[in-house]
Design brief:
There is one protein chain. It contains 6 helices and 15 strands. With about 270 residues, the protein is an alpha/beta fold. It has a 6-stranded mixed sheet, with helices on both faces. A 5-stranded antiparallel sheet has the order 4-3-2-1-5, with no helix packed on it. A two-stranded antiparallel sheet has the order 6-15.
Length: about 270
């Protein structure tokens, strides 16, 4: 095995090589061991692992993985039928999507475009999202805000109520709070999704999210936040939408995503 470096695609031997990651950075410890900080390729998780636990993915395997992800995006698009009516102007909800992952941001924009939705996607690192969200909301004035990227529990299966046990939940929580401050001054009825893999669901909801991850502290799919935003955007504004309306489209249903729901953001004007 060649020397593992930043940007390599890898899996973890100790987890039966179940998830493909990109190496975000490598940290050298005082005992000369090295730890890699990892970001999931199609799962919104951030993790770490000793270098010796990692297996490099070949270019061919990575290409196959990317092709499979593209297929899933296209299949998700084709599953949704946006109604077209004559003598009406249909205005779907406008989406502002903040994503801590650059590649996810690019793929999310592709998804929204192919769905015919109005969306602005910005690649903003999770720790910077609270600092920029108010300004971006002021500029774009969206109906729906997606706050996502990567997350994960440092110690799995314990310390669920310890915010410091989550890699990025505190940043998502602060971003939700800033967004609600904007809403209070702008009088905007904003629908918010927040979170990623294993995020602190209860704290995100308490901060003011309509939908969040992850109630069961499980992994969520790259597409899950987009599924939420899409369904809110295409639901008529006289209807209230909940997870029950699109649970089957989510990777693990209510275990991965849940919330209080919200009014749809699609307006129909008769002409």
């Amino acid at each position: 095995m060649g020397e593992i470096k930043k940007g390599d695609y890898v899996t973890r031997n100790s987890y039966n090589n179940d998830i493909v990651f990109c190496v975000k950075r490598i940290i050298k410890l005082s005992n000369n061991k090295k730890i890699a900080i990892l970001k999931g390729i199609d799962i919104r998780i951030e993790a770490d692992a000793y270098i010796e636990d990692l297996k490099i993915i070949s270019e061919k395997e990575m290409q196959e993985h990317e092709e499979e992800l593209e297929k899933r995006i296209i299949n998700s698009i084709f599953k949704t039928k946006v109604e077209k009516r004559t003598k009406e102007i249909i205005k779907t909800g406008k989406i502002l999507h903040l994503d801590g992952d650059k590649k996810y941001a690019e793929k999310s924009m592709m998804f929204y475009k192919k769905m015919g939705l109005k969306a602005i996607v910005r690649n903003i690192p999770e720790n910077k999202q609270p600092k920029v969200v108010y300004r971006l909301l002021s500029i774009y004035n969206p109906d729906i805000l997606v706050i996502t990227g990567h997350d994960g529990m440092i110690k799995n299966n314990s310390r669920y109520s310890d915010l410091l046990n989550y890699r990025n939940s505190r940043h998502f929580i602060n971003t939700v709070k800033k967004a609600r401050e904007f809403e209070a001054t702008s009088k905007k009825d904003l629908v918010i999704f927040a979170g990623a893999c294993q995020s602190y669901f209860e704290a995100l909801m308490e901060a003011g999210a309509n939908f969040a991850s992850s109630p069961a502290r499980i992994l969520i799919d790259f597409l899950d936040p987009l599924v939420v935003a899409k369904n809110v955007a295409i639901t008529e504004n006289n209807k209230y939408i909940t997870i029950d309306d699109f649970e089957s489209e989510l990777r693990d249903g209510k275990k991965g995503i849940n919330g209080l729901g919200a009014r749809g953001k699609k307006g129909i004007i008769i002409i």
